[in-house]
TrEMBL record:
SUPFAM superfamilies, per database record: Regulatory protein AraC (SSF51215)
Top-rank lineage group of the source organism: Bacteria
UniProt keyword annotations, A-Z: DNA-binding, Transcription, Transcription regulation
Origin species: Dawidia soli
Entry-linked Pfam families: AraC_binding
Name this protein carries in UniProt: AraC family transcriptional regulator
Residue ranges of every copy of the HTH araC/xylS-type domain listed in the record: 173-260
InterPro entries, sorted: AraC-bd, AraC_XylS_family_regulators, HTH-like, HTH_AraC, RmlC-like_jellyroll
MF term (GO), any: DNA-binding transcription factor activity
Length: 260
C-alpha cells in the first residue's frame, strides 16, 4: 500500500477534481478533509460511505482511504503532524483536549461527520479561512492552529456518546472512549464512578477490562495519561505546573512520576 509522508508540520490544499488520482493509501500525518462541493464515495479501511457537500472527515496515520468522485468535487485539506499539535501554545485548552479525544475516536474516523445546519455554516467559514492561508502556511501557523482547535470542539460536540452494549467489543470501545474523554478528570476515572456510568459494579469492571484489554484498567489509564504528558513535556511548551493543573494532579512531582 502506498504511504504518503509529510515533512512540514502543517499543509493546506484546496482543489477541485472530476476524477480521483490517488490509490488507496495511508500517511504519517492527520488529515481534516472538508467537502466544499460535489458527491461520491469515500473508502476508509475497506468500508465505503457516501460523501456530499458539507461533510467533514478526520483521518489518522493508521487509516487507509481513497475517494471515488461521482460529481465534480472540491476538497479542502488541512494536514498536520504530531509535531504541529505539540509545539503550539503553552496553555492547555479545551480545543487541545477535544483534538486528542477525536484522534482516539476511530469510529468517528471511519464514519466521518455530518453536521447540523448551524455547525455546517460555521465549519464552512472556518475552512474558508483555512483555504485563504495556503499561500503562506508556515507564516500563518498560529492562525491555522486556532482553526484546528475550533474545528475539534465543533466536531467533538457532534459525536454520539458511546454506551455499553451486549457485545464485549462494543463495551470495550465505549470504555476506551470514556477514558480518553475524561483523562483530564481523575475523579471520573475511579472504578466506582466508571462502574456507575456503565451500569455495573466496581468489583466487576476491573476484571472485565483486564480480561478483554489484556492490561488492568489502572495500567491503561496510567499509560495513556503518561503518553499525553510526555508529549507535552517534549514540546517544551508546557510547564510542569500547567500540566499538573490540566490533568488534575496533586503536584509537579506526580507529573514527573507519570512521565517516566
Amino acid at each position: 500500500m502506498k504511504r504518503y509522508r509529510q515533512l512540514a508540520p502543517v499543509m493546506i490544499s484546496d482543489f477541485t477534481v472530476e476524477r480521483w488520482h490517488h490509490p488507496v493509501h495511508n500517511h504519517n500525518h492527520y488529515e481534516l478533509i472538508y467537502i466544499k462541493s460535489g458527491k461520491g464515495w469515500h473508502t476508509i479501511d475497506g468500508g465505503r460511505i457516501a460523501y456530499k457537500a458539507g461533510d467533514v472527515f478526520l483521518l489518522g496515520p493508521e487509516e487507509a482511504h481513497a475517494f471515488d468522485v461521482q460529481a465534480r468535487t472540491r476538497f479542502i485539506y488541512l494536514k498536520f503532524t504530531d509535531q504541529f499539535i505539540h509545539r503550539q501554545g503553552a496553555a492547555a485548552t479545551p480545543g487541545v483536549q477535544s483534538l486528542e479525544y477525536l484522534i482516539k475516536r476511530r469510529d468517528a474516523h471511519l464514519a466521518g461527520f455530518t453536521l447540523p445546519v448551524a455547525d455546517r455554516r460555521t465549519v464552512d467559514a472556518i475552512f474558508g479561512v483555512v483555504s485563504s492561508l495556503q499561500q503562506d502556511v508556515a507564516g500563518a501557523e498560529p492562525i491555522v492552529w486556532t482553526q484546528v482547535l475550533a474545528l475539534a470542539m465543533i466536531l467533538q460536540r457532534n459525536l454520539p456518546e458511546l454506551v455499553a452494549a451486549t457485545k464485549p467489543a462494543r463495551d470495550m470501545q465505549a470504555m476506551f472512549c470514556y477514558i480518553h474523554k475524561y483523562i483530564y478528570a481523575p475523579g471520573k476515572l475511579r472504578a466506582g464512578v466508571m462502574a456507575t456510568h456503565f451500569h455495573t459494579t466496581a468489583d466487576y469492571i476491573g476484571p472485565y477490562f483486564k480480561r478483554h484489554a489484556g492490561v488492568t484498567l489502572r495500567e491503561y489509564i496510567r499509560e495513556y495519561r503518561g503518553g499525553l504528558i510526555r508529549k507535552r513535556i517534549a514540546s517544551g511548551q508546557y510547564s510542569l505546573k500547567s500540566i499538573a493543573v490540566e490533568f488534575g494532579l496533586t503536584d509537579e512531582s506526580h507529573v514527573r512520576k507519570l512521565a517516566l
